[in-house]
Amino acid sequence: MLVIGIAGGSGSGKTTVVRAITEHLLGKVVVIPQDSYYKDSSHVPPEERKKINFDHPDAIDWKLMCQQIRELKSGRTIEQPVYSYITCSRSTTETVTVEPAEVIIVEGILIFTCKELRDQMNIKIFVDADDDDRLMRIIVRDIAERGRTIETAIEHYCDTVKPMHLQFIEPSKRYADVIVPQGGHNRVAIDILTTTVEKALSKRKRSSRKQ
Fold it and tell me: 39: phi > 0 → left, psi -120 to 50 → alpha, else beta; which?
């Protein structure tokens, strides 16, 4: 089993890179998104929930995330939590059943900030992109998926996303084995990356057969 971490700033193109690897490996992959592991805030008053900083490492339930990655690596099925950005709460009635696969992709903006999680990864990839490109994608996403207006999306970027990126996400780039510039638009880098992943997977299979 191969565990791949894919990090990068919000709107950098991580989803495009994840999709490319997933499509290349044809059913051998499960994806574990960091966004499923935000701490439940249902007990927090609605007005206070709006102030939650989703771009700070303290917002993530690292203990549960690391535990479930270990379970998958051990061949056990997990019940992945379901989190809503709209209500800032974790579902108490719904989970996503995730079965082990040959490749586990762990994806999220903050995943390299947690040493325990990094230590479980075989390959660490950082998807890089220009700030202007990321800002445009963030605004479109926030309006479509998170109920924000253009004004509130820009305000959120300036007050939270940008400073947290500089404080936590950009510095975590130093842990990466591979950096993909130009985000999801860099087809050459993505092709090289998918080939590298496939070779690493084949190498692990050969090693397992010899043991």
Answer: beta
Rounded CA-CA distance 128/153 in Å is 21
Q: What is the mean pLDDT of each run of 10 residues along the chain (211 residues)?
A: 92 89 85 94 78 90 97 96 84 91 95 97 92 87 82 88 95 94 81 84 72 59
The Cα–Cα gap between 29 and 25 comes to 7
What is the C-alpha to C-alpha distance for residues 179 and 176, in angstroms, rounded to an integer? Answer: 7
Distances 108 to 7, 122, 204 between C-alpha atoms, Å = 5, 16, 25
79 contacts 37 by C-beta, under 8 angstroms: no
Calculate the CA 77 to chain-centre distance: 20
**What letter represents residue 111's amino acid?**
I
State the pLDDT at residue 65: 97
pLDDT at 210: 63
Q: Alpha-carbon distance 118 to 111, whole Å?
A: 7
2, 21, 116, 124, 151 from 196: Cα distances, Å: 12, 10, 24, 12, 42
Taking residue 91's Cβ as centre, other Cβ atoms within 10 Å add up to: 14
Q: What is residue 211's predicted lDDT score, i.e. its pLDDT? A: 59
Cα 195 to its chain centre, rounded Å, is: 21
> What are the two backbone dihedrals, phi and then psi, of residue 40, each rounded to the nearest 5 degrees?
-70, 135
pTM listed for this prediction: 0.89
